[in-house]
Design goal:
Kelch like family member 10; 4-stranded antiparallel beta sheet; Kelch_1; alpha+beta; 17 helices; Potassium Channel Kv1.1, Chain A; KLHL10_BTB/POZ; 26% helix; Neuraminidase; BACK; kelch repeat; 590 residues
């Protein structure tokens, strides 16, 4: 266990070292001598503690240390006295190696934190390989998770990806945790890897193809791009894979499921990277505490049972720093300024600081690690006030009020700015919209929408602000429009399949989801999604509980994601995100 010194003790000890006072050891490296104190070095490193504890070294003054540069030893000794070390992309690998060699675990931890903060598409594989040589379990876990969660981008831009061995690539793509929107991306990554050295790598196509969830491919894609590919046709070992996959594809398209979904990896959906939470709402004539979670990989909802949670509707929700926040709302009697925080890993609720105002029909979004709550109805008036929450201080702070009173509006974040659209001012439904710049603390009106929209859903998607559905004062809308901030103009987007107001809205897996709501006659369970690339709306699986005034948020990267999906029995094995690297090539990740 590393011993810690106070800042004052560190300062005094370092002054004594620099002045050469009371030094009882000289560390000599490549002809460079460092005067120091055995006690200080021993507190920093088990290596030095052991070195100085040998029976024959009690009176020894000078120690020749091989296998390290004078520069690295100087950084280690300086760290022993100051508990600080300058880490750069140029020195981090050498420093990590030296710190590991001399058991300076404080520097090892700092190097790991530095590397973890620098993870990107191009270096994540190299950083993961680096942990094969040093004891950095947290860094390894972070790098493995990064590779799996960003596999599509890594496979497209990383030179390190092309240097993987066949065994390493197979180990990665067989993972249930591999995050891909479409299974086609996995097959195309395999082709990209083979194309880097086709003469030597095409022989591995059968092994790699067996790790692709072939039955999850679109049938036309499977026939035209997989079955007909020259690598597949020319490899006899692929024949039984193709026959098996065709059988599973037939079952899935004929009966909606496979008879061997558990046993056959061809048919098992990947685990989702993100989960859509639908929280609370108005159902059966009153507020509900129901929470359902949606897995886009299987297109299934799961009802999450909670005890002792109060019902709430017309509230806001947000995900920030590992927690889901439920903000304001109405339970049929009281208007809330209450804010509750849910920990999806521990499955616990905690009440945090309340807002300054009671806010039903509140609009909520997140910018720069702050939660913004705007407008709403406090039981007496429609509000134009706005405030933001800092989770680090657990405090709400009022910001500049909006230009208009807005309840039942909706807000989103695009390019670091808050956009709020529509709503009801107490007299009429609004078509106006405004933008807030956090750096200036100012609201500005932007071009109005083409329709009045209260109970609207507003969401940033594809570098535009979408305004979906709502109520115009006469009827529930299924129309959609999108705002281009560069042109300061709205344009029409294809209408939803169903009219609705007061619904949940979120973006997940590159799709814009709308959930539940009120269609003018009744609350609904219907869910649909819009894809910008195809410019079309699609039906998704309906919720289990009919409700309006529901709020949605997306929770990414859960380590316990299986507790929030409907078909846990698909994944009965012990899941691990660790990636095994078999090659001995040292890479330079930075």
């Amino acid at each position: 266990m590393q011993r810690k010194m106070s800042d004052r003790s560190c300062s005094i000890s370092n002054e004594l070292r620099l002045e050469g006072r009371f030094c009882d050891v000289i560390i000599s490296v490549d002809g460079v001598e460092f005067k120091a104190h055995k006690l200080i070095l021993s507190c920093c490193s088990i290596y030095f503690r052991t070195l100085f504890s040998n029976w024959d070294s009690a009176d020894k003054m000078v120690y020749q240390i091989p296998g390290i540069s004078a520069e690295m030893m100087g950084l280690i000794i300086n760290y022993a006295y100051t508990r600080t070390v300058p880490i750069t992309e140029d020195n981090v690998q050498s420093l990590l190696a030296a710190a590991d060699q001399f058991n300076v675990m404080g520097i090892v931890s700092l190097c790991c934190e530095f590397l973890s903060s620098r993870l990107c598409f191009e270096n994540c594989i190299g950083i993961c390989r680096l942990t094969d040589y040093y004891h950095c379990p947290d860094l390894r876990a972070a790098a493995c998770v990064y590779i799996l969660h960003h596999f599509e981008e890594v496979s497209q831009v990383s030179e390190e990806f092309l240097d993987l061995s066949a065994e390493e690539l197979a180990h990665i793509i067989e993972k249930d945790e591999l995050n891909v929107r479409r299974e086609e991306a996995v097959f195309e990554a395999v082709l990209r890897w083979i194309a880097h050295d086709p003469q030597n790598r095409r022989q591995h196509i059968a092994c790699l193809l067996s790790k692709v969830r072939l039955a999850l491919l679109q049938p036309d894609y499977f026939m035209n791009n997989v079955k007909a590919h020259e690598y597949v046709k020319d490899n006899a070992n692929c024949k039984h894979l193709i026959i098996s996959a065709l059988s599973e594809i037939y079952d899935l398209n004929s009966y909606g499921q496979s008879s061997s979904v558990n046993a056959n990896p061809f048919t098992r959906p990947r685990l989702p990277y993100a989960i859509l939470f639908a929280i609370g709402g108005w159902s059966g004539g009153g507020a509900t505490s129901a929470i359902e979670t949606y897995d886009s990989r299987t297109d299934k909802w799961l009802n999450i049972p909670w005890e002792q949670e109060s019902p709430v509707a017309y509230h806001g929700s947000a995900y920030l720093k590992g927690h889901v926040y439920v903000i304001g709302g109405f339970d049929g009697t009281d208007y809330f300024n209450i804010v509750k925080r849910f920990d999806p890993l521990q499955k616990t609720w905690q009440q945090v600081a309340p807002m300054h105002s009671r806010r039903c029909y509140v609009s909520v979004t997140v910018v720069d690690n702050f939660i913004y709550a705007m407008g709403g109805f406090d039981g007496y008036i429609r509000l134009n006030t706005a405030e933001r929450y800092d989770p680090d201080t657990n405090q709400w702070t009022l910001i500049t009020p909006m230009h208009e009173q807005r309840s039942d509006a909706s807000a989103t974040t695009l390019n670091g700015k808050v956009y709020i659209c529509g709503g009801f001012d107490g007299d009429q439904c609004l078509s106006s919209a405004e933008v807030f710049n956090p750096s200036t603390n100012q609201w500005s009106l932007i071009a109005p929408m083409s329709s009045r929209r209260s109970g609207v859903g507003v969401m940033a998607y594809g570098n535009q602000v979408y305004a979906v559905g709502g109520f115009d004062g006469n009827s529930r809308l299924q129309s959609v429009e999108a705002y281009n901030p560069i042109a300061n103009a709205w344009h029409a987007v294809p209408s939803m399949l169903n009219p609705r107001s007061n619904f949940g809205i979120e973006v997940m897996d590159g799709l814009l989801f709308v959930v539940g709501g009120f269609n003018g006659f009744s609350t609904t369970i219907a869910t649909e999604c819009y894809e910008e690339d195809t410019n079309e709306w699609y039906d998704a699986h309906s919720m289990g509980i009919t409700r309006s005034a529901v709020s949605c948020c997306v929770v990414p990267g859960l380590s316990n994601v299986m507790e929030y999906i409907a078909r846990q029995h698909y994944y009965q094995h012990s899941s691990s995100m660790d990636i095994l690297f078999t090659s001995s090539t040292r890479s330079s990740p930075l």
